[in-house]
Amino acid sequence: MKHSARTHLTKGYTFLRTSGRAVRFVAWALVIAFVLTAAGCSKKSATANANSDTITSSEEQTYTRNIIIGFSQIGAESAWRTCNTQSMQTAAAEAGIQLIYSNAEQKQENQIKAIRSFIVYQVDVIVFVPIVQDGWDNVLREAKEAHIPVIIIDRKIRTSDESLYAAYIGADHVEEGRKAARFLQEKYKDADKTLNIMELRGTDGSSVTDGRYQGFREILQNDNRFNIIYSETGDFLRSMGKELAEKILSENGTLQINGTPVDIIYSHNDSMTLGFLDVFEKYGIQGGKDVTIVSVDAEQAVIDALKNGQVNCVVECNPKTGPLVMEFVQRLANNRPIPKITRIEETVFTENDDLSNIEPRGY
Ligand code: AHR
């Protein structure tokens, strides 16, 4: 995976070692109880690799001895998210790192509880995907006081104290919004008419939705042919995309908002796009032709829809951050610095490209 790192480095986190083991033992039952109940995921419990006392002798000695990560994931709202979880689990297993996985089922309160249980258990590193931007300072302060470094992945937090986390790894979601808008500018460069846009937002309050919302407007705001006539959240869910499409189409018969026909759909993720496509069939609407569709994620099903001409552009969002997270965790374990902010580089797939050689997406 390509990534770029800012030069800010985080150093000085010391892993808890033997003194923490006794506490861990006592706390283990509590954590298991939490992960199995709050997360409601009896089949999705921690992926563990217990015999991981690997010490490699090299110029600089590296070790993955008994490293334990507490990982709080948002849930399983999309194929993207499922792939992100799998990437973490596979990379941890391959690195010989024990991963305690907690599924928050779309609730911030479950994530906060999970993080607190990881602190009680004295994991070596906490990794989490913040479902929304605000409301993390208290629990992160608790982690800091317990000397447990926190790595934030995918979505960002809003805080006035940047020392509350060791690193952030994720995509530039503002840039994703810009990329979607730039495709439209290019596609319609010669158009001499108003182009009405329907926007399907992701989870409100999340940095990813804010970024995709802002970046899109940043590019189009000075071009008054583009007119965003409707913006609604579908919470990144296929079912909500379906519901919204069904509501609009059953009321009007055609894709229109208050009598104004929609020319373009800008969807913040592929799941919601697929929800719309599911309903289009029923109403005889041809995605990609009757209405231009720009989507974000680039999961296999939407790449296939792009190849079939049902979608016009897909902005990639890469969920496979697991290996990089494990690399950073190992660097922390060896008291080596890690970048404060690491951006994942991503591409764009459009109807104008040769799509014959796209590798299987894996999600
Ligand atoms: O935070 C990344 C977004 O969350 C992805 O675009 C979406 O599919 C996921 O659920």
Structural features, described:
- With 363 residues, the protein is α/β, with parallel strands linked by helices.
- The protein has 2 domains: 18-170 and 319-344, Rossmann fold, CATH 3.40.50.2300; 173-317, Rossmann fold.
- 38% of the residues lie in helices and 21% in strands.
- The chain has 10 helices and 19 strands.
- Helix 1 (18-37) packs antiparallel against helix 3 and helix 7 (238-252) runs parallel beside helix 8 (270-283).
- It is elongated.
- Alpha-L-arabinofuranose binds next to helix 2 and strand 15.
- Residues 77-78, 80-81, 154-155, 208, 236, 269, 271, 296-297, 317 line the site of alpha-L-arabinofuranose.
Gist of the model:
The chain contains 10 helices and 19 strands.
Question: What's the architecture of the largest domain, going by CATH?
Answer: 3-Layer(aba) Sandwich
Shape: elongated
Q: How many separate domains?
A: 2
CATH superfamily of the largest domain: Response regulator
What is the chain-wise order of helices and strands?
Answer: EEHEEEHEHEHEEHEHEHEEEHEHEHEEE
List segments where confidence is low: pLDDT < 50 over at least 5 consecutive residues.
Answer: 32-61
Major beta sheet, strand line-up = 1-18-9-8-7-5-6
How confident overall, as mean pLDDT? 88
What is the class of the largest domain in the CATH system?
A: Alpha Beta
Helix content: 25-40%
Which fold name is given in CATH as the topology of the largest domain? Rossmann fold
**Alpha carbon gyration radius:** 22 Å
Q: Which small-molecule ligands are present, each listed once?
A: alpha-L-arabinofuranose
Number of helices: 10
Number of strands: 19
**Quaternary:** single chain
Amino-to-carboxy terminus distance: 15 Å
Strand content: 15-25%
